[in-house]
């Protein structure tokens, strides 16, 4: 029996070309174009605003802006100071939060992976970790505000980096516990 390659490939091409122009494929292509159009419409303002900020602001960025402190309100626009305290504050809050969350998270993850033996307490920790992972950051911040800032619980001060570190450590804790637990289970 001989195999007629040219005849079979011709039939396959005709069948394929007929399948490309079915009603289903035409509607699919039209809807894909509509999705592309709406994506471009939605992202255009984002890129326009980002471009405007970059073009207008790049000339004002220098070492003095990054390292100096902001001036008091009401001063001239061009001598408004810098963002040095924001950068330093970010490092302080992040390092305080890490120093709170990392030991507790690694301890919890090690307990779950090595010592828990699937008991009730381990189920409570896993459930609590899953609940904490789903808490929005605004809820964490408002809770810490009510517990620490409004009551002046820490050092008698109302606003402090420690309050921010507490809120951030609550957000970091579930990720550290889960990562440690899963990492130790693999070993």
Strand and helix order: HHHHHHH
Whole-number mean pLDDT: 85
Strand content: under 5%
Strand count, sense and closure of the main sheet? none
What form results from the Cα inertia axes?
flat
Q: In percent, how helical is the residue content?
A: over 70%
The structure class reads mainly alpha
Radius of gyration: 29 Å
Gap between N and C termini, in Å?
59 Å
- Helix count equals 7
The residue ranges in which pLDDT falls below 50 over 5 or more consecutive positions are: none
What's the count of strands?
0
What's the quick description here?
With 187 residues, the protein is mainly alpha-helical. 75% of the residues lie in helices and 0% in strands.
Overall description:
The structure is a single chain. The chain is mainly α. Helices cover 75% and strands 0% of the residues. The model has no long low-confidence stretch (mean pLDDT 85).
Defining key terms:
187 residues; mainly alpha; 0% strand; flat
Present the secondary structure layout:
Blueprint lengths: L4 H16 L2 H35 L5 H5 L16 H32 L4 H14 L3 H13 L11 H26 L1
Helix pairs in contact: 4-7, 5-7, 6-7
């Amino acid at each position: 029996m001989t195999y007629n390659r040219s005849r079979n490939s011709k039939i396959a091409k005709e069948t394929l070309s007929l399948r490309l122009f079915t009603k289903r494929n035409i509607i699919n292509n039209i809807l894909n174009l509509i999705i592309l159009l709406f994506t471009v419409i939605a992202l255009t303002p984002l890129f326009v605003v980002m471009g405007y900020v970059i073009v207008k602001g790049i000339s004002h960025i220098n070492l003095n802006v990054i390292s100096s402190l902001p001036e008091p309100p009401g001063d001239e626009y061009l001598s408004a100071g810098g963002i040095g305290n924001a950068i330093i504050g970010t490092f302080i809050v992040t390092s305080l939060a890490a120093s709170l969350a990392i030991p507790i998270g690694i301890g919890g993850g090690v307990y779950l992976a090595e010592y828990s033996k699937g008991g009730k307490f381990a189920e409570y920790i896993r459930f609590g970790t899953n609940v904490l992972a789903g808490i929005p950051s605004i809820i964490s911040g408002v809770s810490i505000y009510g517990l620490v800032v409004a009551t002046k619980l820490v050092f008698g001060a109302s606003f402090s980096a420690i309050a921010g570190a507490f809120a951030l450590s609550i957000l970091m804790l579930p990720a550290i516990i889960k990562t440690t637990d899963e990492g130790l289970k693999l070993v």
